[in-house]
Amino acid sequence: MSSKEEIKEEQKRINRLRTLVDLTISIILQGDLPIEKAQGLVEGVKNQAVTLFPGKEETFELIYRPRFNRAIMDRYGLH
Predict the structure, then answer these.
(1) With DSSP H G I counted as helix, E B as strand and the rest as coil, what are the percentages for the chain, rounded to 5?
(2) 43 Cβ partners below 8 Å, 6+ apart?
(3) Nearest to 54 by CA among 18, 4, 17, 21
(4) What is the rounded average pLDDT for all residues in the chain?
(5) 41: closest CA among 53, 52, 33, 50?
(6) What is the CA 26 to chain-centroid distance, rounded?
(7) How many CB atoms lie within 10 A of CB 27?
(8) Distance (Å, rounded) from C-alpha 11 to C-alpha 41?
(9) Helix and strand numbers, DSSP H then E, in the chain
(10) Alpha-carbon distance 29 to 67, whole Å?
């Protein structure tokens, strides 16, 4: 069983990742970036996610990658 401190620390990491994802999606949707740069931002977020949650690459791909893909498709008209 996790201690309250461990739970609190994990919640901080979750919130940090959620904020990073939301900000990156906002930048992609509102920015004037080349698609390659947008894709690079996504990879940067993935690297941060894996740093915050080691061994959770598959979780990132299942939860966040579809959101990023939708944002890129909407922004760059790739339907």
Answers:
(1) 80, 0, 20
(2) none
(3) 17
(4) 95
(5) 33
(6) 11
(7) 15
(8) 23
(9) 4, 0
(10) 12
Tokens of 19: 């904020």
- Residue 58 CA to residue 78 CA, distance in Å, equals 24
Q: Cβ(68)–Cβ(55) under 8 Å?
A: no
- Say which amino acid occupies 4: K
pTM to 2 decimal places: 0.89
Q: Using CA atoms, how far apart are residues 55 and 50, in angstroms rounded to an integer?
A: 7
Per-residue pLDDT reduced to its tens digit, 37-53? 999 999 999 999 999 99
Find the helix or strand (DSSP H, E) in which 77 lies. none
